[in-house]
Design a protein that fits this description.
176 residues; alpha+beta; OB fold (Dihydrolipoamide Acetyltransferase, E2P); seven-stranded mixed sheet; two-stranded antiparallel sheet; 38% helix; globular
């Protein structure tokens, strides 16, 4: 008998939760092309589209935070990869800083993947569920290859991942 009295409450709670989610705006995925007008670091840039300027956070890769070892090298390499090349973004969500999270292509080149290949970024495995199977395999393989070759940040014996740096900074500590 007790089970039967809880079913309606369970259904009411479920309906209430669904109504809360229904009120939240949904992200409208989009694609756009245009010139890159600013490169903040190795995985954030601004793209000038026909409608607006889009602040883009790369999906799939994570580069050193500002002030970390290799951050300037990563930023400068990203600038070189997108400079004077048609750049296209395919965006699918906003991050906590209201940046559009996007796949970024300079011509036909996946720029995030190229940064990982060159040893200037980690595969952002925490968000691997947002990648296609092929992207996951390519990014993971590119990182393993860059590590094995000791490219760029992998020349260091123990490079600090940017997510660890962000965690330390939130705690008021410095990172390397």
């Amino acid at each position: 008998m007790l089970w039967h009295t809880r079913v309606p409450l369970f259904l009411l709670v479920g309906l209430w939760c669904a109504s809360i989610d229904a009120n939240e705006p949904t992200y409208q995925a989009f694609e756009a092309s245009g010139p890159v007008i600013n490169v903040h670091d190795g995985d954030t840039l601004k793209l000038w589209t026909e409608e607006r300027v889009v602040t883009v956070r790369f999906s799939g890769s994570d580069t050193p935070e500002t002030g970390q070892a290799y951050w300037r090298v990563a930023r400068d390499r990203l600038r070189a990869l997108v400079q004077d090349r048609p750049t296209t973004i395919s965006c699918y969500k906003k991050d906590m800083h209201a940046r559009d999270v996007c796949r970024v292509y300079a011509g036909s080149q996946d720029v995030g993947l190229e940064m990982v290949r060159q040893g200037l970024a980690w595969h952002a495995f925490q968000f691997a569920d947002e990648q296609t199977d092929a992207e996951r395999v390519a990014y993971k393989s590119a990182e393993a290859d860059a590590r094995a070759k000791g490219l760029a940040l992998w020349a260091d014996s123990d490079p600090m991942p940017p997510w660890e740096c962000r965690k330390l900074r939130r705690a008021g500590r410095k990172c390397r």
